[in-house]
Design brief:
Helix content of chain A: under 10%
Number of helices of chain A: 0
Shape of chain A: globular
Radius of gyration of chain B: 14 Å
Order of helices and strands of chain B: EEEEEEEEEEE
Order of helices and strands of chain A: EEEEEEEEEEE
Oligomer: heterodimer
Strand content of chain B: over 45%
Number of strands of chain A: 11
Distance between the termini of chain A: 37 Å
Chain lengths: 109, 115
C-alpha cells in the first residue's frame, strides 16, 4: 500500500470553477503536511503547508483531518495559470517525506 | 532562489557506463535527498544524507550509491547505468522553517537517458 494516495485525474475544469483535490495517508505518526505544485518538466514547488485548523492563501484552502488521515486542497476561481500537477506530501520525524503521485489539473478557457 | 544547483541538467549515456550527478547547495542545510520521478510512480527516494559522510538508503536505492564529503555537495552515482534508470532526478534539501515542520526545496532536476 502506498504511503500517500491521490486521484491522478486529470481534472478538466473551466476558468472560474472551484475544484477540490483529496489525498489520504497511511502513517498515523505523520507530523507535517504540504501541497506542492509541479509544472510540466519543472521541479515541485511548495504551494502551501497544511495545518490542523485549516489554512487559506488567497484562492487556495487546505484542510487536514487527522482522524481520517485525509488532506484536501480547494482552489476557487480557477485560472489558466493554475494548470499543473498538485502533489500531496506528508512528512514525519521532521526530515522524512512521502509523496503522492500527483493530481493533474487542466483549466480550460 | 533556493540555492540548489544540479549538474548536469541533461545527460544521455549508454548502458553500462558510470554516471555521476551532482547536487550543490549554498545554504549549509544538513539534510539532502536524491529522488527520481517516473510517470505513474511519483517521486521516490533513492538516498538521503543527514550530514557529511552520513547517508542512508531510500526506497529505490538498488543500483545507486551516494557520497557527501562536504556539506554543500551530495553526489549520486550510477555505477553501471541501465535503461531502467532513465528518469528525471531531483535533489532536495530540508529547510528548517523554525516552526518544527521542515520543508523540502528542490533543485531544477537532471534528466538522464540511458540508451
Amino acid at each position: 500500500r502506498k504511503e500517500v494516495e491521490q486521484d491522478p485525474g486529470p481534472f478538466n475544469v473551466p476558468e472560474g470553477a472551484t475544484v477540490a483535490f483529496n489525498c489520504t495517508y497511511s502513517n498515523s505518526a505523520s507530523q507535517s503536511f504540504f501541497w506542492y505544485r509541479q509544472d510540466c518538466r519543472k521541479e515541485p514547488k511548495l504551494l502551501m503547508s497544511v495545518y490542523s485548523s485549516g489554512n487559506e492563501d488567497g484562492r487556495f484552502t487546505a484542510q487536514l483531518n487527522r482522524a481520517s488521515q485525509y488532506i484536501s486542497l480547494l482552489i476557487r476561481d480557477s485560472k489558466l495559470s493554475d494548470s499543473a500537477t498538485y502533489l500531496c506530501v506528508v512528512g514525519y520525524n521532521f526530515n522524512k517525506f512521502y509523496f503522492g503521485s500527483g493530481t493533474k489539473l487542466n483549466v480550460k478557457p | 532562489d533556493a540555492g540548489i544547483t544540479q549538474s548536469p541538467r541533461h545527460k544521455v549515456t549508454e548502458t553500462g557506463t558510470p554516471v555521476t550527478l551532482r547536487c550543490h547547495q549554498t545554504e549549509n542545510h544538513r539534510y539532502m535527498y536524491w529522488y527520481r520521478q517516473d510517470p505513474g510512480h511519483g517521486l521516490r527516494l533513492i538516498h538521503y544524507s543527514y550530514g557529511v559522510k552520513d547517508t542512508d538508503k531510500g526506497e529505490v536505492s538498488d543500483g545507486y550509491s551516494v557520497s557527501r564529503s562536504k556539506t554543500e555537495d551530495f553526489l549520486l552515482t550510477l555505477e553501471s547505468a541501465t535503461s531502467s534508470q532513465t528518469s528525471v532526478y531531483f535533489c532536495a534539501i530540508s529547510r528548517d522553517r523554525g516552526s518544527g515542520a521542515n520543508v523540502l526545496t528542490f533543485g531544477a532536476g537532471s534528466r538522464l537517458t540511458v540508451l
